[in-house]
Each structure stands twice: as structure tokens, then as C-alpha cells.
Amino acid sequence: MARKLDRELEEFRRIMEVPSTFEEGFRWSSLAGAFFVAILMVPGAIYMNLLAGVAIGGAAQWVTVILFIEVARRAHRHLNKSEIFVLFFMAGSMIGGMSGGGLLWNQFFIQSDAAAANGITADIPRWVAPNPIEYPESYGTRTFFHVDWVPVLIMMVVGTFIGQIANAVLGYGLFRVTSDVEKLPFPMAPIGAQGIMAMAEDIEAKTAKDAEENWRWRVFAIGGALGLAFGSVYLLLPVLSGALTGTAIQIFPIPFSDFTGKTGRYLPAFATGINWNFGNLIFGMVMPFWGMVGSFIGLVITAVANPVMFKFGILSNWKFGDDTVATLFKTQVDFYFSFHIGIAVAIALVGFWQVGRSILEGRREKVLSKGKTPGIMSVPKGRGDIPWWVIAIVYVLVTASYIGLSVGLLRWHHGEWHPHIFRVLWILIFLGLFYTPLISYVTARLEGMVGQVVEIPMIREAALILSGYKGVACWFLPMPIANYGMMTVFYRQCELTGTKFTSMWKTKIILYPIILLSSIFFMNFIWGLNPIPSFAYPYAQRMWELDAANRCIMYSATLGEYSMFEQAWNPTYFACGGLFGVIGFTLLQFLGAPLLLTYGVVRGLGQTMPHAVIPQFIGALIGQFYFRKRLKLKWRQYIPVVSAGFGCGMGLITTLGIGITFLSKSAIKLPF
């Protein structure tokens, strides 16, 4: 007998159906969209991430799509849903991974107080960033276009190229297995595809003069109006005031309001505050209700446990008056570093158990029904699939490239064939040939069944520590460890919109050089405006040092001497985390709790930034007990479109503010 389906997951499964035909979405006009995003959206994404920690990837995608739809309409041409999806995908690819990280983070980290305090600055390899003491010129002029940064730029080009190929092809192979062969439903994929359908329906409705029937566009417009209104206050006002007067006016504090210094008297060692981004409310409505409830329960448990642990001396480093950043770091070192690893191991074990049970039940059902499922070579006609041998060759080449490149970099760093290099080589082989295929397949199945991602925590870190390598260069290697299972959701969205897969691969080939050039150029430009971090970028100034300190906990583990890692690692706390996670999951499942509530509670115990959990939970309550009662199942169709519209509105207003900022910074001031 088939396992009973989770009711909430079943709602998500029924939102959209796969079409019977597929269309080519790539056109040479898409190249214009690539340049538009490269010139206008990439700098905006980098700038807003530094300013407010806001990722505008989704907003940039919708701004691009709407602009090109309107341009095409005035040229008496209509974009179909496949062309819209390609534009959407293209804008997301341009923004993803480039928002305030990369080169900007590297130059900060090597100069950070955390790196200096842990004694790792001098050992950070040349392909990460030039040492500021040995190569001070490029830091003084704040430019990446200097000979000192050539090794870093080369690594950026090579790493991005290999990563793009691996994600596209190997993610596709996992999708073939989980969707075509195992017929998994991918319940979360329709959320991302609903906005595309709204745009396409708007075009078709206006062509057929049937706009009254087009509910998606009206709902999208409501979300867009909300995004414009809130974005004007939350982002546009501080951006413009900072650019024009030098002092940013913030009605809603960025990145959050911090109450920890005041509530520490009543809730010691627990970070309190609120993230004022209205998008958190909408996010809580979009995501499954029981998942949000679980995260809130996990937060409440943490609020109770931290004061108790402080009283018994477990969280001994915390003191009254510490703010959110200090509280999170100190509790991380005292307890949560080890406990979170145990929790994550529990989640991974549960994920493996669920996948194993799913496989066994699927085989049992086949035997009972005596039915035949389509073979691995059976694919929908016209979808644009590629042969299996291509996937196998790409996997071998990608893995070999990562291993060869990592070994070569270590040889260059040490100046000789150091014995520790061969110790790392065995780790690279294990990660590339065993761990990556395993975790990618398990994640692909969980995404297909319940929309969850599984990760075995610290597998890379544990492998490097056990290898016996001494130094920090090993932490910055392009290692063959990745989770390609998450790409399966993207291919499902592509399929739901009726877009040929070949459209995506053509787009990636065109995008690759444009992504690199635009991201490098604008990171260099923004670094030249002000030091990063600095008062001009409040989020980076407040949060990057915390991130650096947390990373140094692990980096210090291979220095060969007493380090912060040894202070933070506690096998007892690790075992407690793993035991708590397994018992919690088992108990909730025994009580018949919804599957997503179970995952939410276990994951909620590992929250690192709790300030967004409460508004997300409030949004989930509003959606569940007000809108869902009024709109029934249609609510699950409406809210993803509202979310897409909100992101578009925020993107439009943000783009306006960033454009004015860049103009003001680039203006030449005359001496009279």
C-alpha cells in the first residue's frame, strides 16, 4: 500500500502540470537582455548586498522581464513563456554568486582583524588575495586591475567555468533520474514558475482581448505596488539621502533593530531583534505553513535553552551588554558550533532514511502492480535532452579538473612536492568520486519528494583536518565537492514552463564571459568608491567581521597548534545535537506531525540569525488563517505571484536609487 501523502505537500503538487509541447526560448535578442543585466543589475546587486544584505536577484529578474516584454510589445512582437523564462533565468544567473562576495570579500578577509588574531593572514594563498604587507600598492589604490591580482582573477575565471558546466550538465542528469525514471513530483517547483505564467498570460490575454480572465497579472500588479511602496521607505530613502547628503536616513534600521543589549537582563545569551524587511512577511506566506511553524518552535526552544545554559556556565563567554553579533559569535564558540553539527548530521541521517524508504516502497509498488515504468532512455519528445554518455564524460572531466587544479595550486603554494599534498590528494578523490555523487542523488530525491535539501555538515572540514595537512591553503582549494541535486528544481521549472533545455545551455554559453567581465569591473568600481567595509555599507561593516570570525574557527584547525577550533569543538555537545535531532524527528513522526513541521523544528534549532523568524511566522499565520480561509486552494496559486510582484517592485525602486548613487559618486566636482 502506498504511503499516505502529506496534505500540504499535495497542495503544492497540484498547482501546475507539465505541458505537452516545448518551445525554444533562446533568441539572439536575448543577448541584449544579457548586456542590460550586466550593465544595470549586477552593480545594483553588489551594492545592495553591501548596504543592506539584501539579495536583489529575484527583483532584478522581474525588472528585466517586464522591461523586455514592454519593448517587444512596442515592436509588435510578443514573447512566449519560454522566452520569458530564458530572460528570467539569464538575469538570475548574472546576479547569482556575484552579490558583494568574491573579490570584495577576499580583499576584506585577508585584512580582517579575525584573520590577524588567528595568525592566518600570512598563510592565505596568492590565488585568494595578495598579502597586503608584501603587495600594498593595489590595496592603497583600491583596484583589482593590478598585476598583484592576476592569479586571483585567473582562478575566478577557471573556477566559474568549471562550476557552470558541472551545475548545468550534472544537475540535468540527476533530474533525468528523479523526474523521468522515478516520477517524483517536485512540489516546490511550481512556486518559481508561477510568476512566469503570470507574464505569459498577460501577453496572451491582451492579444485575445480577454484581460478579465487574467488573474495572475492583477495579482502580480498588487505585489508590485507593495514592493514599490515599501522599497521607497526601506531602501530608496537611505540610498538617496546617503548619496546626496552623506548621511543615510533610515526609518527602518538596516540590517535590523538590535534589542539584545536590553533584553539580555531577562534572556541572557539569546539574541533578540527584528528584521524590518516586509519581504519576510511575504516569504512566510509563500513557504509551507508547517515549515514556518517548525522554525518558530525551534526558535522558542532556543530562547528557553540559552538562559538555562548560561546559568549553568555552558555559555560562559557571554556577558550583559553584548549585542547580536557578539552574542551569536560567543554562543557559537561555547556551544552551538558542535551542537549545530550534530543537528545537521541528524537531518542528513533522516534524509538518507527517507530516500531509502522511498526506494523500497517504490519497488514494492512495482512488484504488486506488475506495472512497467518508462526506461531511463525514455524522455518527453521535443524537450531538448542530451545522451547519457555526455553526462558521464562531463562528470569525469569536471572531477579530474578539480583534483588536478587543487594539487597544482598546493604545489605552487609550497614551492615543492610537500608530503601533505599527497594527503590532501586522497581527500580530493574521496570527495569527488564518492561523496559528491551520493549527496547529490539524495538531495535530488528529497527535492523531488518533499522540497528539502540534505547536507552532511563539515564533511569537507573533517576530511581536511583528518588528512593531517598543516596550514590554511587547503581551505581555499577548488575542491570537487558540490551538491548538484538542488539544480533539479530548476529543470523542473523549465519543464513546467514548456521551455526546451537546449535554450538554457545556449544561454549559459553566451552569458559566461559577460558575467565575468561585468562582475569584475563593477566590483572594482564599487571598491574604488569607498573602502569595504566602511560606514557607507552598514551591513558589510556590521556583519562581515562576524562571518570572518566564524570562518576562522575552522581555518585555525589545521595550523598545528591550539586554536579557536579546539575551543569550539566539543564531542559531548555534538552527540547531544545528533541525539536531539534524531529523537525530535522520530517523536514528531510518531505523533503524526506534518512532515514539514518536523523538518522545520529540527532546522529551527540551528538558526544563526533569529531576527527574521518572527516576521516570517507572522506572515505564515496571516496566510494560513485569513487568506487561505477566504481563497481556499487558490491562495497557493496567488501568493507566489504576489511574491514575484513584490520582488519586482523592490527591484525597480532599488535600481532607481542605485543609479542616482552611482551618478553622484561619478560626478566630477569643479573647484568653483
Round the mean pLDDT to the nearest integer and report it: 77
- Lateral strand order in the biggest sheet: 1-2
Low-confidence stretches: 1-5, 668-672
- The shape is globular
Helix/sheet category: mainly alpha
Q: N- to C-terminal separation?
A: 85 Å
For the secondary structure, the number of strands is 2
Largest sheet, strands/sense/barrel:
2 strands, antiparallel
Helix-strand string: HHHHHHHHHHEHEHHHHHHHHHHHHHH
Number of domain units:
1
User: How much strand content do the residues show?
Assistant: under 5%
Key words describing this protein structure:
2 strands; disordered N terminus; mainly alpha; 672 residues
Helix and strand arrangement:
Layout: H1 7-13, H2 30-52, H3 57-74, H4 81-95, H5 103-111, H6 113-117, H7 137-141, H8 150-181, H9 189-207, H10 215-245, E1 257-258, H11 260-263, E2 273-274, H12 279-286, H13 289-311, H14 324-369, H15 388-414, H16 419-450, H17 459-467, H18 487-496, H19 501-529, H20 538-555, H21 564-568, H22 571-590, H23 595-604, H24 613-631, H25 634-666
Antiparallel strand pairs: 1-2
